From TrEMBL:
Pfam family, any one: Glyco_hydro_2_N
Annotated DUF4982 domain residues: 622-697
Native source species: Echinicola pacifica
GO molecular function: hydrolase activity, hydrolyzing O-glycosyl compounds
Lineage of the organism: Bacteria, Pseudomonadati, Bacteroidota, Cytophagia, Cytophagales
Protein name: Beta-galactosidase
UniProt keywords, alphabetically: Glycosidase, Hydrolase, Signal
């Protein structure tokens, strides 16, 4: 990424400096969500079009409607979208190289400059850029960039979003410059005393004469101190490119790891005839990854993936990229004990990778959900033949300097698994692209068939075979393929709705309410409780760990409601308004479900304890209620209104869960990973006390809540940046007079925002709500809802008041600076 010298609110004509730089090009666009004949022409009148700032997702604006496919979120993501932006360039820019970079446009972008077609890029998840120098006017003349997007219906198995949903950059360079994603840094030697940092930099000479170019590389430690440098002189022939290759040694390196994710910077400068022609900076980490049949190693330490699969949407904000939204998502995942993310099933945003670098989270970077055989009628398979190798190579070129990225995935549940003739050949071909682009990382894929991909020699084409939903096969694969490294690339897929408990617990995965119980045992036919995966991971120490499906709920794929793969629109909409997933350990608004704590109990060691369900069962007095406790303590005692219901030892005393779990024996589900009691209901409170080595460590109580009485607000950060994009997430709780969350409350809450920010979106985590995410009010869902505030560029205070009929209102203020 080039240094951004000028970020905000620029007027190109007079503010642009003529040194090499990237200009953020997100502001000042106009947008129309329909076909527009001739809109690529500079003369076209777009004055009636809406003004928008990128990143933008038009589909999240809604409305939700049964006429749109629930599988893709029930939102209007298909059709035509046009974006136009007018800009001027100074006269002096005439002899520069000017490129326009799109980090991602959903879907099938056609880009025009001043009416001329510049290029087409179908895959919405990949970034691309064009050299637009030849199409531009300088000085007095204006320029128009026009982008037509044409996402199709039935083109995705989840909500893809729609629009220019990632950032756009205008880059102005001298005729000698570093190529797009032109640096490649690896650390072939990593040790406490020294590290070798190797880099390859692609240099372009667009002059019509040969040029001698001096390439300088300077290295800066996380502290900012310069720690190494290198220099190379190259003769680059007219109109060609050359790769400079250098290595330097860094003494006593600060090594990138999960606890201390130290980042270095490589500052590249290109010099010709004594003049600096370009400057390009690249962040990287010094770390070593390795794997063998017995596991995965980071800096020589064996590490198991405590991973989550994540789709790319940011809940109520849709697919539009927002750094803070992603940071919050990752922080919540880290709090659950997550150390790895699988970017299911597509290249992620740059921001996600930068944040994983900074936060110490490993990434499995995944390219595709489909190859040639279609999963949906209008999917990427249409473009696979022409684009897959280019898209895959570009993903790797873009992402290979991120220390967080530890594997390239060439595909998820690719249907060619079942095709003996072509599966392994395509896998080999894509694997080879990865090796060519980056031999420093292993390749993988998520296989969900057994035993076809192994029999068909397809799983053997990747370095590490990912197994989706096959924990009971881990040992068999180990026996039959003793040298094949494996892990659970997709696991569990249990479904639940936050705060929903059906009694008796439903026997089948669906329920007339279109919600799913939160006892964490229900799922579609291929799913199984997290406990089963924990068990098989323990039985198979060679397995590198798991990536559970999914960390967060996402828009679309409302399984167990809706339908099946390869079905038609109508089938998926049969259970309308179920419109977003139930798979998350965290709901669409970022509120943890109970399952969050089940994973936390397995993946973290800081003492924690969690108890469920809520304790508001009026009318069920005397009836037996299953009470579960998730903890990393060894023993727990449960009290109901002060009376002990017994002390139980985790992993020893049988749990008592009475649900038939149909697919796994024994029928009465028993788990060493949770504790449970059946207790007759009486209003009051339940309390769990956790013990470790016999010593009381922690406790948690839940009280029977009274009637909704008041609102309470909690903000995630009291200070945000006045940069026009930063966000504050405010949790709204409906409380009784004593301050207990009312677990069934669905009061409608209205919001008033004052000061230097605005209400960006609202949500509540209800997967069946068709209310707009952009309204100024939201009903609580099981006691909670969410307001997301966005900063403006003005510094000052932003205040939010939440009110609801009959309840005491609440206000909160934050500083934007
Ligand atoms: C998997 C698939 C995921 C998601 C999941 C739901 O088979 O790879 O994308 O559909 O099932 O359980």
């Amino acid at each position: 990424m080039k240094r951004v010298l000028l970020l905000i609110g620029f007027v190109l004509a007079n503010a642009l400096q003529l040194s090499a730089q990237d200009l953020n090009f997100n502001e000042g666009w106009r947008f129309l969500n329909e076909k527009a004949e001739g809109a690529e022409s500079p003369e076209y009148d777009d004055s009636e079009w809406r003004e928008v700032t990128l990143p933008h997702d038009w589909a999240i604006e809604g409305p939700f409607d049964v006429k749109y496919n629930a599988r893709a979120g029930g939102l209007p993501f298909h059709g035509t979208g046009w974006y136009r932006k007018e800009f001027t360039l100074p006269k002096g820019a005439r002899d520069k190289v000017i490129r326009l970079e799109f980090e991602g446009a959903m879907y099938n972008a056609h880009v025009y400059i001043n009416g001329k077609f510049v290029g087409n890029r179908p895959y919405g998840y990949i970034g691309f850029e064009y050299d637009i120098s030849q199409y531009l006017n300088f000085g007095e003349g204006t320029n128009v960039v026009a982008v037509r997007l044409s996402p199709e219906d039935l083109s995705s198995r989840w909500y893809p979003g729609a629009g220019i949903y990632r950032s756009v950059w205008l880059k102005m360079d001298e005729k000698i410059h570093v190529d797009h994603w032109g640096t490649y840094i690896t650390t072939p030697t990593v040790g406490p005393k020294k590290a070798v940092v190797q880099n390859e930099t692609v240099i372009i000479n667009r002059f019509s004469e040969d040029k001698t170019i001096v390439v300088k590389q300077e290295y800066f430690a996380p502290s900012g101190n310069k720690v190494a440098e290198g220099e190379e002189e190259l003769l680059v022939k007219a109109g060609t490119e050359q790769t400079s290759a250098l290595f330097v040694t860094i003494e006593n390196p600060a090594i990138w790891g999960l606890e201390n994710p130290h980042l270095y910077t490589q500052e590249t400068s290109l010099w010709s005839e004594g003049k600096e022609m370009d400057r390009y900076s690249t962040k990287f980490g010094i770390r070593e990854i390795a794997f063998d049949k017995d596991g995965f190693y980071l800096n020589s330490e064996k590490l198991r993936f405590q991973g989550v699969c994540l789709h790319h949407d940011n809940g109520p904000l849709g697919a539009a990229v927002n750094r803070r939204a992603i940071q919050r998502k990752l922080q919540i995942m880290k709090d659950m004990g997550v150390n790895a993310v699988r970017t299911s099933h597509n290249p992620p945003s740059r921001e996600l990778l930068e944040l994983c670098d900074e936060m110490g989270i490993l990434v499995q970077d995944e390219a595709f959900d489909v190859w040639k055989l279609a999963k949906v009628p209008n999917g990427y398979n249409k473009f696979f033949e022409e684009w897959s190798e280019i898209d895959l190579a570009d993903m790797i070129r873009r992402d290979r300097n991120h220390p967080s990225v530890v594997m390239w995935s060439i595909g998820n549940e690719i249907l060619e698994q079942g095709k003996k003739e072509i599966g392994w050949k395509l896998a080999k071909q894509l694997h080879e692209v990865c090796v060519q682009m980056d031999p420093s990382r292993p390749t993988t894929a998520g296989f969900n068939y057994y035993s076809a991909p192994y029999d068909n020699n397809m799983a053997q084409q990747v370095d590490i075979a990912g197994m989706n939903y096959k924990p009971s096969m881990y040992s068999e694969v180990r026996k039959n393929y003793p040298y094949l490294p494996t892990y659970g690339s997709e696991t569990s897929s249990v479904t639940s709705s936050r705060g929903v408990y059906h009694l008796p617990i439903e026997k089948y995965s669906t329920h007339e309410s279109l919600q799913v119980t939160s006892y964490d045992i229900i799922g579609p036919p291929w799913a199984y409780p997290p406990d089963i995966e924990f068990y098989f991971q323990e039985q198979n120490p060679h397995s590198m760990g798991e990536f559970m499906w999914t960390g967060f709920d996402y828009l679309g794929e409302p399984t167990p409601y809706g339908g099946k793969d390869n079905s038609t629109n109508g089938y998926w909409n049969a259970d309308w308004p179920a419109r977003s997933s139930y798979f998350g350990a965290v709901d669409l608004s970022g509120f943890p479900k109970d399952r969050f704590y089940l994973y936390q109990s397995q993946w973290t060691s800081k003492p924690m304890i969690h108890v469920l369900p809520h304790w508001n069962w009026e009318g069920m007095e005397g009836q037996e209620i299953p009470v579960y406790c998730y903890t990393n303590c060894d023993e727990v005692e449960l009290f109901v209104n002060g009376k002990s219901m017994g002390r139980k030892v985790k992993g020893k005393d049988k749990t008592n869960i009475i649900v038939d779990f149909l697919r796994y024996e024994p029928k009465s589900f028993d788990s060493p990973y949770r504790l449970s009691w059946m207790v007759p209901y009486e209003a009051g409170n339940i309390k769990v006390i956790g013990y470790k080595n016999g010593e009381k460590i922690n406790e948690k109580s839940i009280f029977t809540a009274g009637k909704p009485y008041q609102l309470a607000l909690e903000v995630d950060r009291e200070k945000i940046l006045a940069d026009g994009v930063d966000l504050a997430y405010i949790t709204v709780k409906v409380l009784d007079k004593e301050g207990n969350v009312c677990p069934l409350a669905d009061n409608k809450v209205s919001f008033i925002v004052e000061g230097v920010g605005r209400l960006e979106a609202v949500g509540n985590g209800d997967p069946t709500s068709t209310a707009s995410f952009q309204a100024d009010n939201r009903k609580a869902f099981n006691g909670l809802c969410l307001a997301i505030l966005k900063a403006s560029k003005e510094k000052g205070e932003i205040s939010l008041t939440a009110q609801s009929k009959g309840l005491k209102k609440a206000s909160i203020s934050i500083i934007s600076e």
